[in-house]
Design a protein that fits this description.
four-stranded antiparallel β-sheet, about 55% helix, 7 strands, Arc Repressor Mutant, subunit A, about 400 residues, alpha+beta, 14 helices
Length: about 400
């Protein structure tokens, strides 16, 4: 039993769908458990025969499916399209003209037969008249059969019979035409509502932001990946009402935008995610001091997530000692430069700066002080310090 406010409809192919008269929502999924099996249709409707017509002067076929849908089939490329290609406009008009001529020919034949019958009715006896009526009935049956054969087979030559199986293989599936059926279904619901109430049904208008959010939420729930292909995912998404909240001509662009943004997000997350070794080094930089020992550091920060990021104890200790030795043990550039002055025996009171500079330039510590003025000032301070001793 349907919940209150829901009504059931069917598409031209017999596909059921449900419409909520309160919210205006359409759904391909039954809103509550299915009714008892006895209430369901037990015998499927007999499908009409598919009609194929050769388009004059081309390798294309015009196909009318058993569901009443039209498409065009290219026998060279073995592809089908819904919309008529621009180059088939004139050939299709020629096909329609030939069909009209055939109809006129049959109508004229019918009139001639009727005229002959009327003439014979005047000339023949009642027995002959009954015979002629029987002949007319037979002729009418032949005419109906001929017209059907013309509609089904007109313009199809012998090689079309060989291609018939091929056409069956390329016939549009239910998924391929689901969107068209959905549009037709919604139109049918609107007509039903109009007929019942005399007014156009009012559909709830959601803000554009809400429609886009629900559309993206659907893609997230279906786990659409950054590398997903629209044509592959479309049949899986089209039956969800949220997919139709955005215009049909924007669905593909929004789908591709979602995949692109998702890919960028994943890429950025990979870039921002540090290796366990880097996280551990961050802990060393922020917590280790010059006088700290390994056992003290391990005991104090063993519960820190950055400490646990590196699982091998020996590796932790090695990195700790390396950090203390090469990072915390380094002197400042000024101290290194002053050590150079003290280590150079020729630097004594009375030596001129230009002479001292030539000696000091041979040592790398000389260049740790980038400013030339600072180098000379430190040199003179050092000489003054020596003189005062």
């Amino acid at each position: 039993m349907l919940p209150p406010g829901w009504i059931e409809h069917r598409t031209p192919t017999g596909q059921p769908y449900w419409y909520n008269t309160v919210s205006g929502q359409s759904s391909w999924l039954f809103p509550s458990p299915l009714p008892p099996l006895s209430q369901q249709e037990t015998q499927p409707k007999k499908k009409k025969k598919q009609i194929k017509k050769k388009i004059p002067g081309t390798n294309w076929l015009f196909v009318l499916t058993h569901d009443g849908f039209e498409f065009y089939y290219d026998r060279d490329t073995k592809t089908s399209v819904w919309e008529m290609p621009e180059g088939l406009k004139e050939p299709m008009e020629e096909l329609k003209r030939l069909e009209e001529e055939e109809k006129e020919k049959q109508a004229k034949l019918k009139q001639e037969n009727q005229a002959k019958l009327a003439q014979k009715e005047k000339e023949d006896t009642d027995d002959k008249k009954r015979l002629l009526e029987k002949q007319e009935a037979e002729q009418e049956a032949k005419r109906v059969k001929l017209e059907q054969e013309i509609v089904d087979e007109k313009g199809c030559n012998s090689d079309e019979h060989a291609a018939e199986n091929e056409l069956e293989a390329t016939e549009m599936t239910e998924e391929d035409i689901m969107w068209q059926l959905q549009q037709m279904a919604e139109a049918e619901v609107e007509e039903t509502q109009t007929a019942q109430t005399g007014e156009e049904p009012k559909k709830p208008e959601l803000p554009e932001e809400e429609c886009l959010w629900q559309f993206n939420q659907l893609l997230a729930e279906r786990n659409v990946s950054p590398f997903a292909v629209y044509s592959v995912e479309y049949p899986k998404l089209m039956t969800d009402p949220r997919f139709s909240l955005v215009p049909h001509n924007k669905q593909k662009a929004l789908f591709n935008k979602y995949c692109h943004e998702l890919g960028e997000k994943v890429k950025n997350e990979k870039k921002s995610k540090k290796k366990p070794e880097d996280e551990y080094k961050d802990l060393l930089v922020s917590k280790v001091t010059q006088k700290m020992y390994w056992d003290d550091f391990r005991r104090k920060y063993k519960d820190d997530p950055r400490f646990k990021a590196l699982t091998v104890t020996k590796e932790r200790e090695a990195l700790f000692k390396d950090h203390v030795k090469h990072h915390l043990g380094k002197k400042r550039p000024k101290d290194e430069y002053m050590d150079l002055l003290r280590d150079t025996k020729d630097i004594r009171p009375g030596i001129r700066w230009r002479d001292a500079k030539k000696i000091l330039e041979n040592d790398d510590r000389y260049y740790l002080i980038e400013s030339k003025t600072d180098r000379e000032d430190l040199f003179r301070d050092y000489l003054q310090e020596m003189s005062s001793k």
